[in-house]
Amino acid sequence: xxxxxxxxxxxxxxxxxxxxxxxxxxxxxxxxxxxxxxxxxxxxxxxxxxxxxxxxxxxxxxxxxxxxxxxxxxxxxxxxxxxxxxxxxxxxxxxxxxxxxxxxxxxxxxxxxxxxxxxxxxxxxxxxxxxxxxxxxxxxxxxxxxxxxxxxxxxxxxxxxxxxxxxxxxxxxxxxxxxxxxxxxxxxxxxxxxxxxxxxxxxxxxxxxxxxxxxxxxxxxxxxxxxxxxxxxxxxxxxxxxxxxxxxxxxxxxxxxxxxxxxxxxxxxxxxxxxxxxxxxxxxxxxxxxxxxxxxxxxxxxxxxxxxxxxxxxxxxxxxxxxxxxxxxxxxxxxxxxxxxxxxxxxxxxxxxxxxxxxxxxxxxxxxxxxxxxxxxxxxxxxxxxxxxxxxxxxxxxxxxxxxxxxxxxxxxxxxxxxxxxxxxxxxxxxxxxxxxxxxxxxxxxxxxxxxxxxxxxxxxxxxxxxxxxxxxxxxxxxxxxxxxxxxxxxxxxxxxxxxxxxxxxxxxxxxxxxxxxxxxxxxxxxxx
Length: 529
Fold this sequence. Notes:
By secondary structure, this protein is mostly beta strands. The chain has no helices and 38 strands.
């Protein structure tokens, strides 16, 4: 304790002091409060908080320190300072707001020591501070790697992500195809920065002229803090391709058709593609190329039209005879050509036939005279014949190695010296041939009766030539119990008839071989009376 005074006369100052330790009661106490930032801070942002520490006791406090438990315990904020009783000090501090939180809180601790006793006092303050969130969705969509044909399934993919700073719940993805709000993904939750892949599909419409198709994916979610809605959308324009295609089938008649008859076939032309085709024609290559069968018609995708056509079954085809239909049209978008073909090998049935006739000479002939005759060999069937051979019983081969088309007829001629005589002397001719396709051999024989005037002891002269290296052979018909003398001469002028043999008639044909000929020989058969 100090005392101070002044001399009244001279004004001199005088002092005195004394002290005593007197016992007393102290109440040391410290107080701290914390204030959130004036404006909410987004997660991940720097929050600047403020506060006040004060001496709420009755004794001076020394070594006052304020610490925070963020970002770690005992993070210094203020101090050391000294505060007299009732004294207060404001302070500020900062901290990073945690990610993905709706509110954040921390605790300040203030400590100090009583100046008298050194005892410690402490106080704490906690503040729960709101954050400001920025919920955000991102959405991207991918087309298939290759253009998708119309009518096929277009499979797309995409990614939905949380591009905001707060967790999102009830995340769902929808698409507007094939109908609005078609579910694609969800519900799921996404933390900030998380993403989820998705895919979806829809059929590409048919019969459209677009080269691309557009569809929109839509994503929605809720902020986990406030429940507020967030949305995102993504549009993909994907290339597509039309598929113009014609289908064509052809059906043969139920039964085989003979050459020369009418062959009636049926068929179906269809649009087996995805785009309308106009100016559709069907033509056949029989009886001539591009023979009209159907058209013009228009076919929508999936539409079919039945048709029929006909032609004369050809003679020159061995079967099965193939003919080809061709369908062509123009797709409605670009007008490009679309074609299809269908071939059918329709079986045929043939009836090979050959006919032969033999005409008598216009005037009666005399036995022993040279007779000229004629006839016709014809193809009376419906198949081409080859290796046509006509053999006359008297004259031998009159037609050899001939080909005959159906309906074709060829005249022939021959000559011989009759060996029999009478008003109705039979003369016959045989014809044979083979079906050019099947090889089936057909034959026919024609017999005619011609008048041959008989003369007593009148010789019948046969003409012939020797065969190199072999015999000359000729034949004649005989009557029962009739005697025939066969003679030969090398020349008719002059003649020198030599008897070769005598033959007794049996009613059959007799064949005479002669190996004694040189360059030529003439033969006659004498009927002995």
